Amino acid sequence: MGHRLAAATVLLLALVAGAAAAGEQAVGAGVEEAGKSAAWTGGLSRRSFPAGFVFGTAASAYQVEGMALKDGRGPSIWDAFVKIPGEIANNATADVTVDEYHRYKEDVDIMKRMGFDAYRFSISWSRIFPTGTGKVNWKGVAYYNRLINYMLKIGITPYANLYHYDLPEALEVQYGGLLNRKIVEAFADYAEFCFKTFGDRVKNWMTFNEPRVVAALGYDDGAFAPGRCTKCKAGNSATEPYIVAHHLILSHAAAAQIYRHKYQHVQKGRIGILLDFVWYEGLTNSTADQDAAQRSRDFHVGWFLHPIIYGEYPKSLQVIVKERLPRFTADEIQMVKGSIDYVGINQYTAYYVRDQQPNATTIPSYSSDWHAAFASSFLTFFAPLGAADERNGVPIGPRANSDWLYIVPWGLYKAVTYVKEKYGNPTMLLSENGMDDPGNVTVAQGVHDTARVAYYRSYITKLKEAIDDGANCVGYFAWSMLDNFEWKLGYTSRFGLVYVDFATLRRYPKASAYWFRDVVTGKN
Ligand code: GAL
């Protein structure tokens, strides 16, 4: 009920805002047939942004490539995880997904025709090293060479991310994967291989996508691979997320160090990391709730960005987590501090948050360490005592298809501004942003994505405001160009600017794709 109401609100907003014109788009029209403007741009155009600002779309290897177990690729922890019955909606896998492995030219062509400058893709570690280390799969190397070379030929700049949730399963089996310190060297070796092999053409590197999600969902609530937690078959939510996060930070820093020492001066690229950042707004103005919101921001983005900028974990983590929080040695601090040339912020949503101190029954875990309560499918397990998605009965925003995704454009402004103010205004990319529709919509329904058009218009307007107010954000990447494999939700969620018929794999640009074309080609 609440969901339907929310959807209606979005639709109404979209119509009022002028997105109705989207309905004029011929269903499934090819990009070249699209003569008209898709929808009102909201006054946004490339000219609204600083010179050189980059517009792109983002995706990840496991979600779009397919050929998951072919052409020599080794399995990742996600290939193992999706096989567990009940973990993924309809027990779906990404064995085929949208088959970008074969259709990359078509996909890069669509990007180009929509006017995008860049593609943020990820490299599958186990496609390069099927068992994580040692023997190279040259067919995998050849695939990324084809993809990169085609992008450059067409004029799409590659932004390559080395890790998007997909640890080689062999390392998980051999020594517990990210829980083992050995992962730092293994990742650094893999990263170096990529710099050496692709770095003559790839100038924008990212080490990890959302290390927080890897640590929290993989080891605190167990919703993502490898599915460990205190209540799971195996795991410890009080310690493992912190150990994994520590190893991820060191792995990132080790790779960045190699890049800077051996490759950067010749290849002239840059290296960074991609962090998810939900904006947390205090439920009330009480000091307790305001402090809870600050702790949430520390435990979320600060967990990673604080060590990278300042060389230590946020004070709130040090005080609360105590001896469960690993420490950096003096040498490690040197390596970690300042280990980014830029940072990607993945921003989708915002939650109200209120103070919730632990009591005798609280089971220690990363999430209960926040001493905060809020609402989200990802987080209710952590905060069983209460939802805080409403203030005085009013939701923080309408909800998309994903139950964690409330539409709150002002949250993006606050998140970007927070990074600017708290972390010395680093060079930023808004590296993911988007919303999903349900999976079971037809092509005819799917391409008329008025709610998505309204979402992008409102969020990008807020990004522009943050930049106008001084945030050093130099690029924006929509998630995602194509509908694709959405982790737990499998194919029951569609985040794309382009509808994919999962039976035929045919691509149909949605109104939002044409909307982007009008904004980034700046004709309005
Ligand atoms: C991000 C993630 C992506 C994508 C998106 C939508 O957190 O990096 O892989 O799935 O969320 O849920």
TrEMBL record:
Residues 1-21 form the signal peptide. The keyword Hydrolase applies. It holds the Pfam family Glyco_hydro_1. Keywords: Disulfide bond, Glycoprotein, Glycosidase, Hydrolase, Signal. Its EC number is 3.2.1.21. It catalyses: Hydrolysis of terminal, non-reducing beta-D-glucosyl residues with release of beta-D-glucose. One of its GO terms (biological process) is carbohydrate metabolic process. GO terms for molecular function: beta-D-fucosidase activity; beta-galactosidase activity; beta-L-arabinosidase activity; beta-mannosidase activity; cellobiose glucosidase activity. InterPro entries: GH, Glyco_hydro_1. Belongs to the glycosyl hydrolase 1 family. This is beta-glucosidase.
